[in-house]
Design brief:
The chain is an all-alpha fold and 119 residues long. It is built from 4 helices and no strands. α1 packs antiparallel against α2.
Length: 119
């Protein structure tokens, strides 16, 4: 299923609003022993929705920051060029690890929520 950026943002907002409603309901009934099971169910649902929201958020970030093929920069480099790099001491193309590290500096599309854990 292909979802647009707007679709994903809408889903995240809907999940956030549902978590707020569940939290409000818990606040109303948590002191009553009569609703103990409902409070537990709502708490579990909030944890599930929080996990779901993180997965949706990660999916959004993955779509905005596509994975870089680490071998793409060195795959087609000729042996002669590699020898020239050795002789002249010109830095070789980035290694997969450094490509991965540099891709983490890309903008993050995380949408803040009151349910985010402090990092």
């Amino acid at each position: 299923m292909d979802l647009s950026f707007k679709d994903i943002k809408f889903m995240i907002e809907a999940v956030d609003n549902l978590m707020v409603k569940y939290q409000e309901r818990i606040s109303q009934i948590e002191d009553s022993d009569e609703y103990e099971d409902e409070v537990s169910d709502l708490g579990n649902d909030i944890m599930f929705l929080s996990s779901l929201r993180k997965k949706i958020d990660d999916s959004l970030n993955d779509s905005l920051n596509p994975k870089v093929d680490a071998n793409a920069s060195t795959k087609y480099v000729s042996k002669r060029r590699k020898d020239i790099w050795k002789i002249t001491k010109i830095p070789t193309p980035k290694t997969p690890k450094s490509i991965k590290q540099s891709s983490t500096n890309l903008p993050n599309a995380h949408i803040k929520s009151e349910f985010d854990e402090d990092k």
